[in-house]
Amino acid sequence: MAILLLADHDNAHLSDQTAKTLTAATKIGGDVHVLVAGSGAKAAGEQAAKLSGVSKVLVAEDASLANNLAEPLAALIVSLAGSYDTIIGAATSVGKNVLPRVAALLDVAQVSEIIEVVSSDTFKRPIYAGNAIQTVQSTDAKKVITVRTASFAAADASGNAAIESISAAANPGLSSFVGDALSSSDRPELTSAKIIISGGRALGSAEKFREVILPVADKLGAAVGASRAAVDAGYAPNDWQVGQTGKVVAPQLYIACGISGAIQHLAGMKDSKVIVAINKDEEAPIFQIADYGLVADLFEALPELEKAL
Ligand code: FAD
């Protein structure tokens, strides 16, 4: 058994999504080789080599691989696929873009967003917005898998794997990189934050959202999330949305403020270790999954909390 793990990185830094995907890969069992494909990606390759459980790191550097374009990256993975039984990656925007293409090119089914490894060919994954867990067995000779990393702890960094440089595959030339518009923030990134404070429709405006949620986030060193209702109303930017059609998070602490607890929101945060809900309606469904519930007006409770912090 050999497993090829597609690393998530920005050339300089390996994302912790890779260390979490590695935990899933080691549960499948077999030699794990990490593929770091990029341009000037030596540093990310060295970080991958330190993860314990990795037996080899393959670093492919080429201008065509600089921006995680699905087409050249999938061509590279397919060119390596003959040596592997399993190809695995995090269910991030890169993994979700590249691995279905790999599965299609290999003519196998993809197993998406696994949350548990039952055996080398059997996995658990959420369906119906997390309301049911499906156990799937893949009979394909090669498995192509994406991992919901919130369900796996990160592998530690006590390894020392060999690093091998490999060539890129021929670029199919189906896409080219034009540019990206990245949001810059001093706050922790939502999917890797240890603490998240989220606001809902109750905030009422973008100004109130900033005025009430952000000072508490600053005091806690927390990332900021939002319900879809808050995002749709323009109170919070799109990339803050938590839920079925937003980000899936599992921080140590999730504080939901003025969020009712619709299943589509819960699908994105219910695996958080400790959930705190502040809502003025004691019947709000969010209280059913909250570890600590405060029935209060958030416009009074949050400034008080900030003061206390
Ligand atoms: P509401 O449901 O309106 O709740 C507001 C809450 O604030 C209420 O419980 C109220 O009691 C409380 N409140 C009001 N004033 C105060 C106050 N002063 N102090 C304290 N509490 C107060 N939603 C997501 O969040 N993420 C998703 O990814 C997502 N994906 C979806 C996908 C699909 C296909 C569909 C159909 C829906 C999706 N939704 C998603 C929307 C979801 O169904 C809900 O509509 C949404 O989550 C509601 O947001 P909310 O809780 O902020 O608003």
Automatic annotation (TrEMBL):
Superkingdom, taxonomy of origin: Bacteria
All residue ranges annotated as the Electron transfer flavoprotein alpha/beta-subunit N-terminal domain in the record: 3-181
SMART domains reported in the protein's UniProt record: ETF (SM00893)
Cofactor: FAD
Residues at which FAD binds: 201, 227-228, 241-245, 258-265, 279
Cofactor note: Binds 1 FAD per dimer.
SUPFAM superfamilies the record matches: Adenine nucleotide alpha hydrolases-like (SSF52402), DHS-like NAD/FAD-binding domain (SSF52467)
Designated name of the protein: Electron transfer flavoprotein subunit alpha
Species per Swiss-Prot/TrEMBL record: Rhizobium lusitanum
Species classification: Bacteria, Pseudomonadati, Pseudomonadota, Alphaproteobacteria, Hyphomicrobiales
